[in-house]
């Protein structure tokens, strides 16, 4: 991973290629090493006490720090800043041979990494032949992963055979049912037998964690499942993000962060007074009371009751407070927003925005995203409050966690809150209750299949706002200057109130171009267009007639939602395109009595 052709961006090490992820290289595949193999140079500390405190509680560790992934700098380092290990260790010789059983079948030799000669396989004829890593491995939902034991899998008889193994393709495509593991002794087995979860055809998980070390393992015992290493379900990063809030003195916070390591040994004010003897510290905190410095230091350590407040509740409280200006209008500030007077955005909209309570233009925001673990086969997303489940079995990023990788995204956004009484009035309608019953039945079926607790359903208000958010993002992206994939959402539907934050953020200047704020000033136009487009989908009536409680299509978390109307890039959606139904927002050709927005029917 030290070659320039294999350089990853810092953000990719958080969202796509963190520890435990597999990466294809030209001649082999690797698995990204755990945090113990990440360089400590060329990285920066990330200050976000609210996030640090929550992650420390989730991982149950005594102390924790957030740092950016190490940067790659050309002509500075010869060793890659992020380590990687060869995985899988089984390879296929590129050269294909006809099968002796049927000349139309193609077979390729299976070999181990330690049998290669300078990344080539030396055949019986002495020629060195190129190889590629096998595309099949095995793993479990907890993130453990291992090479498929091809000899055990092929030899169902239990024979200890060491004769050559082959991967044989007996069809015209790469269908798994036409792929067989074959031994020269005559035994064979279709990979289709390994594709059904829970059968134990691949054995049982030994808890191997090759990203941490060759011999790193922990107790497990789940049946191994077949995993295509390049498939989308091979790695689901588990991240947590917060929006930095204007709840402290930014100038003092920066000074404390700069001298954090020296202040780290402090336990009380008297020790702070001792360090005042240092000219550097005395100059840095000149004019600031000792108690104030210590309080800020403790805040950055993650101490205080405010960190027990759910992630989104704290954000909603700040965004919905109604102040004309929130935060500092300073290029160095982390958050600055402006609450527009209603007369600026609700004139001439024919009551369309009557349910909207406040409109806030977020001129500047900072989002901190941290990676804390990962899963395979099934993704685990934060709940509707932005919190992660303490009981989730996630794979660890290292044997011992003392720090986590995090990135800062800076950008802008638009926030709109809705009147609580209008949401409650909508929920009480008979048509909404009927639609809600169908949606909840779909949720219970989905949760039952996966062993999830039935009380995890986010609720109809969340689904309605989530669907509206997707509709607005699609409309806004047409003229705000940002591509649709760069917009993101945060949906607020808790006890504090209801709202939507559509924002964009980037580690560079792309996140602060000003187009999203300007689009927010024309909210009525965008809302009208989004609602009009949402009434009819190009896949109607099939899309509109989809019932969430039907298990035939496997879309039990979706109502009237498909790629033709509501589904967007998964990186933009906080729920990976689940919990969507445009029938809760606008009337559709199949359901007309569950919509939150009362749009009169148009004549022919």
Topology, please?
Layout: H1 12-15, E1 22-24, E2 29-32, E3 45-46, H2 49-59, E4 65-67, E5 84-86, E6 90-93, E7 97-98, E8 106-112, E9 120-122, E10 128-133, E11 136-139, E12 145-146, H3 150-154, E13 165-169, E14 179-183, E15 188-190, E16 225-228, E17 236-243, H4 250-258, H5 260-263, H6 269-275, H7 279-284, H8 290-301, H9 311-319, E18 325-327, E19 336-339, E20 356-375, E21 403-418, H10 420-427, H11 430-450, H12 460-476, E22 487-494, E23 497-506, H13 515-520, H14 523-534
Descriptive overview:
The chain has helices at residues 12-15, 49-59, 150-154, 250-258, 260-263, 269-275, 279-284, 290-301, 311-319, 420-427, 430-450, 460-476, 515-520, 523-534, and strands at residues 22-24, 29-32, 45-46, 65-67, 84-86, 90-93, 97-98, 106-112, 120-122, 128-133, 136-139, 145-146, 165-169, 179-183, 188-190, 225-228, 236-243, 325-327, 336-339, 356-375, 403-418, 487-494, 497-506. With 604 residues, the protein is of the alpha+beta class. The protein folds into three domains: 90-228, no CATH class; 245-302; 310-367 and 406-584, no CATH class. The strands form four sheets. Strands 3, 4, 17, 18, 19, 20, 21, 22 and 23 form a nine-stranded mixed beta sheet that branches. Strand 9 (120-122) and strand 10 (128-133) form a beta hairpin. The longest helix is centred in the C-terminal third of the chain and has 21 residues, at 430-450. The protein is globular.
